[in-house]
Every structure is written in structure tokens, then in C-alpha cells.
Amino acid sequence: MSFQNRRPSSRRDRRRQKNSRRETAQGLDKTFLLIVGAFVLLVLLFLAVFAYFRA
Prior knowledge:
Blueprint: H1 3-6, H2 11-19, H3 21-54
């Protein structure tokens, strides 16, 4: 992935991006689920450590 592909420079690139918006949305969903899952695991770990030190 290069810097040129990341930024739409011409109308043709913008149109191509608009057509592939569904794929990028799916990728964003995957990364969002990954981040939420990691966050939930982190919170559960924090609660477990907190309960362990509290007891």
C-alpha cells in the first residue's frame, strides 16, 4: 500500500473508491470488532486483577 493509493487524486480514483465503499465498510467493521473485543478483554482482565487484589 503506497501513499498514492491512499489518497484519491483524480475523478477516476474517486469513482473507484465509491464503488469499493462496501468492501472498505466490511474492513472497518472487522477492525472495529477487533478493537471492541480487545477493549472488552482488557476491561475483564482489569476487573479480575482488581477483584484479586481486593480479596
